[in-house]
Amino acid sequence: MKVEKAVITAAGKGSRMKYITSVLPKALLPLFRKEDGKFVMRPVIDLILDSLGEAGVTKPCIVVGNQGKLLVDYLAERGVTFVTQNVPRGFGDAVLRAKDFVGNDPFFVHADDGVLTGGYVEATKIFEEMEPDAVLMVRKVNNPQRYGVVTVEEVGETMNHKLLRVKEAEEKPKVPKSDLGISAVYIFSPRIMNALEQVDVKEGELELTYGISNILRQGGEVYAILLEKERWLNVGDPDNYFKALEFTYKI
């Protein structure tokens, strides 16, 4: 089944960017892009939509919060569906806001605070050929305590990427079992919605990783590709935003 839908979560407050994101959504923070041999600055949401479009997505949905008006206005003529998450209750809760939009179709999930330099087409091909419950994109990270982390077994190679079967997923573990952090770009079957609804969150936020763990516990099939050359261009905090600006100016 083709992956034609995407849910982009853009309801967070962007508190790590402080002053600028009190007036401008993270998704509208710009990065450099060359057009006709000259540098322009394009909002990261454009780069996200372009990357998803190259992978076959034609129906994007964006989850916005109380400060989403500028983003809605910017994308008003582009055929984007909008849903709201008025109270930020976590990444997983934001995805659940789009349950009606998703219906019975597979879909991408993408955070709004960055974009990968590649991997979208490869992940789509794996999902469409193997039809698992999810395909994740993982990278080796120096600080796995800050990420959703997976334990895996290697099962082959596809399109110059190692293909991994995911055995376990944890959110920000104090004692990580691996150094493979989940990038904030995923492909899911609609099964993830029920898996998220079954999570009992007594306190804290509903994380997407909890839903992935539920799928695995219920015998579902989750694969991942290892990103080794690709980068996550992060606009979510000042240090990483500066690095992302430097990187996009040099390519």
Query: Helicity, in percent?
Result: 25-40%
Count, helices: 8
- Pattern of helices and strands: EEEHEHEHHEEHEEEEHHEEH
Structural class: alpha/beta
Task: Count the beta strands.
Answer: 13
The profile of the biggest β sheet is: 9 strands, mixed
Descriptive report:
Helix 6 crosses helix 7. This protein has 251 residues and is an alpha/beta fold. Strands 5-4-1-6-11-8-12-10-9 form a nine-stranded mixed beta sheet. It has a two-stranded antiparallel ribbon with strand order 2-3. The longest helix is centred in the last third of the chain and has 13 residues, at 238-250. It contains eight helices and 13 strands. A hairpin with a 2-residue loop joins strand 2 and strand 3 (38-43). The model has no long low-confidence stretch (mean pLDDT 96). The chain has helices spanning 44-54, 69-74, 91-96, 99-102, 120-130, 191-197, 208-217, 238-250, and strands at 5-10, 30-35, 38-43, 59-64, 81-84, 107-111, 114-116, 134-140, 148-158, 161-171, 180-188, 222-226, 232-234.
